[in-house]
Each structure stands twice: as structure tokens, then as C-alpha cells.
Design brief:
Shape: elongated
Radius of gyration: 20 Å
Number of strands: 0
Distance between the termini: 70 Å
Largest sheet: none
């Protein structure tokens, strides 16, 4: 029975990858940092759409904010499914891609709100 405890399964060493649905401490920290940063950027953008450049807000600014929040909605659903274990771990890269897209969309919206030329 000792021979079964040291199998490498075709890897260079012992295979200590987490099982499906489990995450390491490093992955949890990365998820929290990326999610927190994206949340702050989205919050600043949504608040900026109502406040800048003047009150009352321009309809196009509100439209930008609604589009960003809709993109966030689909990403939140994917994150929820991922955390429940309904999605495979490979979908984590898709979630990171969607979060990066949301941050870039917020950047474009903020540049428009503050009239950067």
C-alpha cells in the first residue's frame, strides 16, 4: 500500500493541487484583492456619474453607470456560481478577464466624466 501514497500522476513531484471546489490561501487573497479593487473602481465611477461634472447629472453619465452595473451583474452571478462549486476552476480566468474589462470600462467612463482630452 505504500506505493500508492507516493504516486506523482505524471507530474514532476507529488501532486498536492487542491481538489475541485477548494482554494488555497494564496488564491483567496488574490480573489479578495482583485474583487476589492474592482469594487472600489466601480463605486467611484457610479458616484462620479451622478456628481460630476455638475448637478443634475447628464443622462449619458447615468447610461454609462447603468451599463457598468449590468456588466457587474453578470460577473457577480459567475462569481456566485464559482464559489458554490457549480463552475470548473478554469472559469476563474474568465472571471478575472471580465473584472479587467469592467475596470477598463470604468476608466473610459471616468475619462469621459472628467472631460479628459
Amino acid at each position: 500500500m505504500d506505493e500508492f501514497s507516493t504516486r506523482t500522476y505524471g507530474t514532476s513531484g507529488l501532486d498536492n493541487r487542491p481538489l475541485f471546489g477548494e482554494t488555497s490561501a494564496r488564491d483567496r487573497i488574490i480573489n479578495m484583492v482583485v474583487g476589492g479593487f474592482t469594487s472600489v473602481v466601480v463605486l467611484v465611477t457610479v458616484i462620479g456619474s451622478f456628481v460630476f461634472p455638475s448637478m443634475p447629472p447628464r443622462p449619458l453619465n447615468i447610461f454609462f453607470a447603468v451599463c457598468i452595473l449590468l456588466a457587474c451583474g453578470s460577473t457577480i452571478v459567475l462569481i456566485f456560481w464559482y464559489r458554490q462549486g457549480d463552475l470548473e476552476p478554469k472559469f476563474r480566468k474568465l472571471i478575472y478577464y471580465m473584472l479587467a474589462t469592467i475596470v477598463l470600462l470604468c476608466l473610459c467612463a471616468n475619462l469621459y466624466f472628467f472631460d479628459v482630452r
